[in-house]
Write a structure and sequence with these properties.
By secondary structure, this protein is mainly alpha-helical. The protein has two domains: 8-110 and 228-291; 116-208, no CATH class. Helix content is 69%, strand content 1%. It contains ten helices and two strands, in the order E-E-H-H-H-H-H-H-H-H-H-H. It has a two-stranded antiparallel ribbon. The longest helix is centred in the last third of the chain and has 49 residues, at 231-279. Mean pLDDT is 89; it is low at 1-14.
Length: 294
């Protein structure tokens, strides 16, 4: 479980800040938080609100909703505060050693780590390579209505299964976070197909781009460490670097599991509730529920 970052010794004017060892594995702690706290709460909410066909069921679901938000955003703060803290400590140690450099130089050393958004890009890039290798699929994706074209193309059956598998893992994404109104990728594949088509047009190769990014980061890190003559200073920087590097993917992954996934997983309940209200003649269309206030 995450705790607020209280164990950072920033020392006096003559001593460099250090990181308490318990903050050295924030990445592992975050994955436990996702498995044991975040996803179970979503699943419990979905189970509790799978039926919204009566007034009482609707009321119970709406009562559960602010509770869910409160619990998830309490977790959110426990997640993000330690990330910012370890990155700030690394930056402070780095700039103390290299006062002529910038914060951007320090943070550039933390690149080269995959997160869920990059993994989604990798999957879409692989699907683009599949389409390039199979002309009927490529042509379908380039059509004015790509999904309809894929449905009519027998060769695309396997490709569409890939998209369905992708959607199950990475489909909890919306154009704007904290917004119930926008459809997620699970509901609307238009953004996914558009990205795949863009990758085709650019002949984008994720692995090649990623290898270049990782290689550049390794060279920069090695050069930085080589430039530090004192072994104690080098070790202090390296300890802070490893803690900040381990935490870096959480910058994006907490958006994936909280800021985007929370409204995307709540939206189906609101649409079921909207369908009931339409059936009762209280709304004229489903989307009107997103305009209601209390």
């Amino acid at each position: 479980m995450f705790s607020p970052p209280q164990a950072f010794d920033c020392g006096g004017s003559e001593s460099a800040p250090t990181i308490d060892p318990k903050f050295s594995h924030l990445g592992q702690a975050f994955q436990r938080t996702v498995r044991e706290e975040i996803l179970p709460r979503y699943e419990a909410f979905e189970k509790a609100t799978e039926k919204s066909e009566t007034v009482n069921q609707a009321i119970l679901g709406l009562q559960h909703l602010p509770r869910l938000y409160g619990e998830i955003f309490e977790i959110h703060m426990r997640v993000v505060l330690p990330i910012f803290a370890v990155q700030e400590v690394f930056e402070a140690i780095y700039l103390r050693r290299f006062p002529d450099r910038s914060s951007a130089d320090a943070h550039a050393l933390l690149s080269g780590h995959l997160n869920n958004f990059l993994q989604a890009d990798r999957q879409m890039a692989e699907m683009a390579r599949t389409a390039i290798a199979q002309e009927p699929i490529r042509q379908a994706l380039m059509a004015q209505k790509p999904w309809a074209a894929l449905l009519e193309e027998p060769v695309a059956n396997g490709f569409m299964r890939e998209i369905d598998a992708f959607k199950e893992v990475y489909g909890w994404r919306v154009g704007t976070t904290h917004d119930f109104y926008q459809r997620s990728w699970r509901e609307d594949l238009t953004p996914v197909l558009a990205i795949i088509r863009q990758f085709i047009e650019q002949d984008y190769r994720f692995e090649r781009h990623w290898e270049e990014t990782v290689a550049k980061q390794k060279v920069a890190l090695e050069a930085t460490l080589t430039a530090i003559a004192d072994p104690d200073d080098r070790q202090r920087l390296l300890q802070a670097y490893h803690a900040a590097y381990d935490a870096r993917p959480i910058d994006e992954d907490h958006h994936f599991y909280i800021d985007a996934m929370l409204p995307a997983r709540v939206r189906p309940f609101l649409l079921r509730l909207a369908a009931w209200l339409v059936g009762q003649g209280l709304l004229s269309m489903l989307d009107e529920i997103f305009l209601l206030t209390n």
